Amino acid sequence: MGDVSHTSLSPLPSSDRADVAARLRDALLGASFTADGLLDLLGAPAYAALARSETVPALRATRGDTPLETLVRLFLLQQPVPHARVADVLPVQDCLESGWLTRAGADEVAATVDIRPYGGPGGEDWFIVSDLGCAVGGAGGIGSREEGVVLGVGGASTTLAGITVRTPVSSALDLGTGSGIQALHAAQHATRVTATDLNPRALHITALTLALSGAPAADLREGSLFEPIADDETYDLIVSNPPFVISPGARLTYRDGGMGGDDLCRTLVQQAGDRLSDGGYAQFLANWQHVEGEEWQDRLRSWVPRGCDAWIVQREVQDVTQYAELWLRDAGDHRGDPAEYQARYDAWLDEFEARKVKAVGFGWITLRRTAAAEPSITVEEWPHSIEQPLGETVRAHFDRVDYLRASDDAALLDGHFRLVAEVVQEQVGLPGAEDPEHVVLRQHRGMRRATKVDTVGAGFAGVCDGTLSAGRILDAIAQLVGEDPVLLRDRTPAQIRLLVEQGFLEPAE
Questions:
Q1: CA-to-CA dists, residue 297 to 85, 229, 237, 361, 375, angstroms
Q2: In this structure, which long-range contacts are made by residues 455-458, counting pairs with CB atoms below 8 Å and at least 24 apart in sequence?
Q3: What is the gyration radius of the CA atoms in the chain, in angstroms?
Q4: Given pLDDT bands bounded at 50, 70 and 90, which one contains residue 1?
Q5: Which of 67, 99, 110, 287 could cysteine-pair with 104, CB 3.0–4.6 Å?
Q6: Cα separation of 175 and 226, whole Å?
Q7: Do 362 and 289 form a contact (C-beta atoms < 8 A)?
Q8: For 256, which DSSP code?
Q9: What is the pTM of this model?
């Protein structure tokens, strides 16, 4: 990732000129400066190259003078463009006066911020504002060493947006909002959105993102973690893509939390319980330490606040050398003085050695406020492919938790179930064998889980269409295979419970 050439952050556009933001939005849309428009103009290879911070293919594709080519060079490639060309596309005087553009030489103008088209989940045309060179897909990549730099939308942001439960709510909190992507999503299904950040520049940029995307303004508050939130304030949804990087010191506000080890993520999770309304969700991305002599699952269970169900998924693990190299490259240190790079690398390894950290995990943490006497905590590793968006899958997981918590074996046998859509059966065994060694049920949606079942479990799942109770299905299977129906009823509820828990079966009621 490349270094950003400017040595100080540029002045930002005014956030008080909603009229100018609206006119600028209309002009961008009028020129098809959208995610689909970019793909059509640049073609897939050049569009993908932008996401790798490689700009040459996009520069070659925008050598003409159409309105869209002008806007791509101006806002995505950050090239000065002749004033006359921009005036044909944008309300250039308004944009200069309000700070979206600045004069560059006698007859050229330049952008003061990155503006990246972003397609919303319902086909909305949104625009994510960030500092120059700091949009993923922008001209410079994420290589700025400026402490207060505000990044655009990246892989972590889109991951969190995809796993977030999107039921309509009255209140949502985006904690550590950055460029405002989570607040923008929340504004589509929350009556009131609050966005916080330690960095005042991020709050300013969030206001710009919301205005340029045509979304309602959010309640913007400056401060760390839950400090800006009153003690009696609760929310139906809390989301956070926090500065979760485990690093020696806090060089970069957007990524380094400033607390030792994984304390920032732990503190965030532990404090979220008291800020949730009944039934409310809190969803985070996080890093956590794998410490010598300690099970990582136990570490994460200890983070879960009282009165909350939790589903924690570890998506990736890196050893300490991989982890240090990833974030040193993120800051562009590998392109600087080799001696300085080595010293920084040493400092990371010293920090991990002192804390007895052997690896770092990355994943998702979802909490749900519950009144249950015994909250459910699921901690699992799932590095396999998934299908985003997963918000509905997350919500359904907690619905199943409620169902299973309230259902003993007798209730399961009385229950009616349906096989979830797009589950297939695979039989595994030697070629030519009369019977398979085992049967696998596999999901093609959501988490895309696979689970082994016996022949009774496979037959049971295949018949579940909500018509017959589980007990009646088992009685029929017992008659078919010549087994004692009482014994079959005794041993099968555990398998039914597992199939419901993992999302292969759903209650038909």
A1: 58, 30, 25, 11, 16
A2: 455/481, 456/481, 456/488, 456/492, 456/495, 457/492, 457/495, 457/499, 458/425
A3: 26
A4: very low
A5: 110
A6: 8
A7: no
A8: B
A9: 0.94
Name the strand (E) or helix (H) holding 240.
Answer: strand 235-240
- Nearest to residue 345, comparing CAs of 356, 334, 360, 359? 334
The crossing angle, in degrees rounded to 10, of helices 391-405 and 155-163 is 40
276 to each of 262, 279, 307, 308, 460, how far by Cα in Å? 22, 8, 10, 9, 39
What is the number of other CB atoms lying within 10 angstroms of the CB of residue 227? Answer: 10
Rounded to whole angstroms, how far apart are CA atoms 183 and 210?
A: 8
- As a whole number of angstroms, the distance between CA 373 and CA 306 comes to 10
What whole-number percentage of the chain has pLDDT above 70? 96
What is the spatial distance between Cα 1 and Cα 51, in angstroms, rounded to a whole number? 11
Range name among 48-52, 72-76, 174-178, 470-474 with the lowest pLDDT average: 48-52
Give the DSSP H/E element, type plus range, for residue 308.
strand 308-319
Q: Mean pLDDT, to the nearest integer, of 211-237?
A: 97
* Residues contacting residue 200 through CB under 8 Å, at least 6 positions apart: 222
Report whether pLDDT(52) > 70.
yes
